[in-house]
Amino acid sequence: MQPQKHSHIEYLDHPADVKFRASGKTIEEAFEYAALAMFGAMIDTDTVQPATTLDIDLDADDCEELLYNFLSELLYLFEVEEIVFGRFDVERIGRYDDSYHLRAHATGEKINLERHRFDVGVKAVTFHDMMIEQTDVGYTVQVVVDT
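and the corresponding structure tokens:
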């Protein structure tokens, strides 16, 4: 299965894992597309029905760690709760005192193997080649996930 195509997501060549870039007008939107890219590498997210929405609140020392924590939390929920996500709404990312905070919602449903076909399994998010960059039109993030 080829990863889903989306104008805000670019899958990059990587010898062993999945590497992608996601961009958005805001950092929140870039994080949303990064989550969609990670799940889009595993499954056709268009097959996911919006049955359950989970709240996510995270803190980190910097934005890269926040992105890592966000994607790792989604992967944890996928593995433990057996929920596949197809929609992500990052309400806000802000800096408070010496840390960064993320408030988001992930929407999806329990895995249904009759409708959800997995060809790639993501084991973990990595810091390898991770990048968050502000551009003239918004933000771009780059992530490598271990498969």
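(Above: one complete record from the training split.) Helices lie at 27-42, 63-81.
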